Amino acid sequence: MQYALALAHKAEESGEVPVGAVLTKDDRLVAEGWNQPILARDPSAHAEMVTLRNAGLALNNYRLVNTTLYVTLEPCVMCMGAIAHARVERLVFGCSDPHRGAVCSVLHLADADFLNHRVAWQGGVLAEPCSALLKSFFKRRR
Predict the structure, then answer these.
(1) pTM passes above 0.85
(2) Where in this chain does the record put each CMP/dCMP-type deaminase domain (predicted)?
(3) Domains held by the chain: number
(4) Residue 142: its pLDDT value, please?
(5) Contact in structure between 48 and 64 (CB atoms under 8 Å)
(6) Which residue among 121, 133, 134, 139 is buried most deeply as judged by most CB within 10 Å?
């Protein structure tokens, strides 16, 4: 999660919302990403989506079985759908998103009956520094 937080700072330096993500398999780094929708002119370029795309290329497969995704902010609906579709085994996130969180805050997609894959998840890992980075970013923007 520390590395995901460092990537969130990289997003912030680019003027993006500071969210970072890394994907591991067998305790080794497979892929990384950070928010880039402005830079990439791509509304789907959230940290999770960039990381999943990079992981698919690195593993030569869109199925990311036996992997763990670490992300600094609770994923949104789009990202949670992609995480489930990719068959990520485990999700670990920093701070909750009380406005758009699709794991446990607003929606509970990790446990949705209509999905054919369940993602084990854990929230609150390094929640304070993840939250502080986002709050600081948005305070400066307002």
Answers:
(1) yes
(2) 1-104
(3) 1
(4) 76
(5) no
(6) 133
Binding site residue list: 46, 76, 79
Phi, then psi, of 25 in degrees rounded to 5: -145, 130
Q: How far apart are CA 96 and CA 20, in angstroms?
A: 14
Q: What is the mean pLDDT of residues 27-37?
A: 97
Of 48, 74, 89, 128, catalytic:
48
Exposure letters 45-77 (e unless 16+ CB within 10 A, then b): bbbbbbbbbbbbeebeeeebeebbbbbbbbbbe
For the chain, give the percent of residues with pLDDT over 90.
93
- Written as six digits, the tokens of 49 are 């989506």
Look up the CATH number of the domain holding residue 92: 3.40.140.10
Told to judge if 12 belongs to the known catalytic residues of this protein, a careful annotator would answer: no
Domain containing residue 117: 1-131
